[in-house]
Structure formats: C-alpha cells, structure tokens
Amino acid sequence: MRGLVLLLVLVAALPARAEFRGHGGPVKAIAVSPDGGRVLSGSFDQSAILWSPGRGAAEVVLRAHDGAVNAVAFLPDGRFATAGEEGRIALWQPGASRPERVFEGHGAKIASLAADPSGRFLVSAAWDRTVRLWPLDGSAPRVFEGHTENAVNAVGVLADGSAIVSAGYDGTVRLWPVEGGAPRVLAEFGLPQNALAVLPGGAGVAVAGADGTVRLVPLGEGAVRELAGGAAPIIALAVNAGGTLLAAGGIRGSVAIWSLPEGRLLRTLTGPGVPVWAAAFAPDGTLFTGGTDRRVRRWDAATGAHLGPVTPEEEEPATASDHPGARVFRACAACHTLTGDSANRAGPTLAGLFGRRIASVPDYPYSEALRRMDIVWTRETLAALFTLGPAAYTPGTRMPEQTVGNREDLDALLDFLEIETRR
C-alpha cells in the first residue's frame, strides 16, 4: 500500500502556541485523547498529525492514506485510528512505525469514524451508503445498510456501546443495535445532515446539516428540539464530556455554543472567517477547531476566548495583490503555492506551471490515474480544467471539484497564473 510510512517529526524546544500549524491543506477532522494529553488531526493534505497540547507542537506526522484524511478517533487504551478518502481505516499504536492494522471494505470515501467507548470496535460511515462495524478482536466486520442516498456523513456510538447512530444526505438519523434488535429511523428531516454528536447519559443525539439548524433527537419517545444556528450549513458538531455544552461549526467560519439541556445559545466564536470542518472538546473544556485555514485552533469554551491571537493565514505577496486574478486564485491558495516550495501543501506547487506535464512535480504523491495522463499545462488546458471541472477533465484527481463559470474571471485567473508562476 502506497505511502504507508510514519514520518517522525523532531520538534525543537519552541514556545507553546495557541494554534497548531503544520498541515498543508484544510483540517477535516479532530479528536482528543481520553486523558486530554494528545490531539489528533486529519487533513486534505493526506496526513494526520498527533499534537501535544502542553508543548503546542507536533509529535508525529502519520501518512497511511492515498487521499484526504477525513476522520480520526481515539480508543480508550491510547490507540487511535485514521480514515481516508480512499476508503481505508488505519489503526495505530502510539509510537509505532506502521499502522497496527488496516481495515478495508468501503467502496467510497469514509466521511466519519467513531470508537466504542469500551474499546471493542470502530465504526465508520462512508459515501457508499453504508455504516460498518470493525471488531478489534479479529472477527469479521459488519455492514449496516438502509440509507437511501450515497453519502452517509456522520456516525457515533452510544455511551453504553449498545447501538450505532448515523446521519446522511438522505436526511435521516438512524439507530443500529449492535447486539440484535431491528434498526430504526429516529428522525427524518428531508434535508441533508452533515454532522452528528452523541449526547451523554442517553439524552439522544444532536444532528445538523444544510439548513443551519441543530436538532436534538431523542432515542425513544419525545419531540425533536431545534436550535437555530443561522442559515449557513453546519458541518461540525461536538459535545463536551459532561453533556453541558454543544458546539457547532459552520461553513461561514463561526462556531456557536449552546448550553444543554436547556438549549440556550451562550456565545458565538468568531475566527478568521473560513469554514470550520472539525471540532472536539478536551476533558478540561478546551474546544479545538479546524478548518480551511489549515490550522487547529484552541478556545476557552466557558468564556469564548480564543487562546492566542486570531491571525489569518499568511498570504503570499502575489495573492494579496490587486490583480483581479489574485481574487480568483485565493480559493486555490489553501492547497497550492506559487513559489517552488510546496511545504506540505495538499496540492503541488504551481511554480513553472505553464509548459509542465501533468503529475510531474518531483516527490509529490500523485494518483496513478494522473500519472497516466498526457496533458501539458497551457492556457487552453487550464481553461478546460476550470470549465469542465477537475473530475471531468482529470478523472482520478483528488482536487476538490470547482469551476470558474464566469469567462472574465477565468481570463483574469489565467493572466495571473501566467505572470506569477513564471517568476
């Protein structure tokens, strides 16, 4: 399996930072160890990073996936798992040089991962319409089917380990008993559900999605409660250990925090204004968030204070220019640099782009599908990429799907790239 490597990062003694910086792409997932001593993040840059909150530094960079690391989870015994866009789950021992085990079976990208609180199994949700249970005793995995749309976006395990809960693009929230019993649809909303958090003490689950509303769904009888979070889609949910705080991260970059069980909005955390894709509470109440700016941020959830300055991602001078193409390029800057150093970015450097053959930057882990293509980047081929979209023009790419539909914007982007990538 390509890329099955553990890259040890020897970090010199540095002052602790409020922000964890090291990922080369958007942070898609965050988990905190049961004792709060470690934080694990997964990113679009195909890596996971294990952090020491006390030192404010990375301990190790994990590479075991051929795509974005969309989900991470800790087990109660200190082991942890990472799950990727390619549909595999890697189980890691602390300090090991390779994953202890790799689970395979999903036919599409894994979107969510959770661990049984007693450490018996992992569960995953993927864009193949399935939820899967992976026993850690070596027995055969189990497949749960019932979601009617391809994307099952979120999964969790009840505190007693008796059942799995899931939410998906089909708008349903489903419960799957682990030991016998029929699966149930707990709720159906008719709108895609993106995120889920299991509430402690059997209080049910919180789910949220496309309409910006958080819904508290009981496991048995009772009405669904709604917490209005605004009109923007919610893409991350987290609940603290005591079940007294619920955090919701949105596509517009803010994080709302409610008190539970009353459901009162306490405060809204405002960061640099980029989508928040992941959130997790530590045992001491610290809230960790991750998003498009490639950073893991720390917040005091009790006061709403950001631990450290809220600074935007440093821009290359070119992207801060007043060239009209620079504005269009800023959507690309999270994954690509214009200089010769890709610096662990999710995408290869664009330096020397024009006249370069596709998939030819040294040491960048391109997919085999791209390596087999016969494309040379010119103004015409780049225009086709952004007109047709990466999935249609370069099948097998891991580039996020995006197009530039406005011809004036496209011409400005191409002009900008011609100037900046030839310097």
From TrEMBL:
Keyword line: Heme, Iron, Metal-binding, Signal, WD repeat
Keyword Oxidoreductase: no
UniProt-recorded name of the protein: Cytochrome c domain-containing protein
Source species taxonomy: Bacteria, Pseudomonadati, Pseudomonadota, Alphaproteobacteria, Acetobacterales
Signal peptide start and end residues: 1-18
Coiled-coil intervals: none
Record GO terms (molecular function): electron transfer activity; heme binding; metal ion binding
Classification via Pfam families: Cytochrom_C, WD40
